[in-house]
Amino acid sequence: MTAPELTPDDVLAQERELELPSLSNDDALALGLRLLDLARQRSLPVLIEVRRGPQVLFRAALPGVLPDNDAWVAGKTRVVERLGHATYYHHLTNKAAGTDFNDRTGLPFARFRAHGGGFPLVVRGTGLVGVVVVSGLPQDEDHALVVEALRAHLSA
Length: 156
Description:
Elements: H1 8-17, H2 25-41, E1 47-52, E2 55-61, H3 68-83, H4 87-97, H5 101-105, E3 118-123, E4 127-135, H6 139-155
Helix pairs in contact: 1-4, 2-6
Pfam families: HbpS-like
InterPro entries: PduO/GlcC-like (IPR005624), PduO/GlcC-like_sf (IPR038084), YBR137W-like (IPR010371)
């Protein structure tokens, strides 16, 4: 049995739930390694990236990742940095409205990709400080993997 599809409000609730107390280099490394461990355990062909501002603090590509995944990670990152919300939120919002993200915003698909897997790293009391991105799976699974890792990271 598959889980019901999330709504945009569900994703916004996840964003609030998953605010971080901090995002040091060590925090970013721990989050990236947690994602890497989950992906390895499941033999997932994903590219993982954790950024604070413009700086990449963690990046890993597992077997099966394609060169195209680099463009997906970059495009998802730009959406989160520009609009401040998870890429899956934007996908679901546009899907519910029957619109296309890139047509609606005027942002080119080559640079902005509103497909699940990009998630804002928000530090409580500070705001958006970074982005975590997974690419390589169907977009709902990319998103779910990020959420799972963030939940585990926060409970550690």
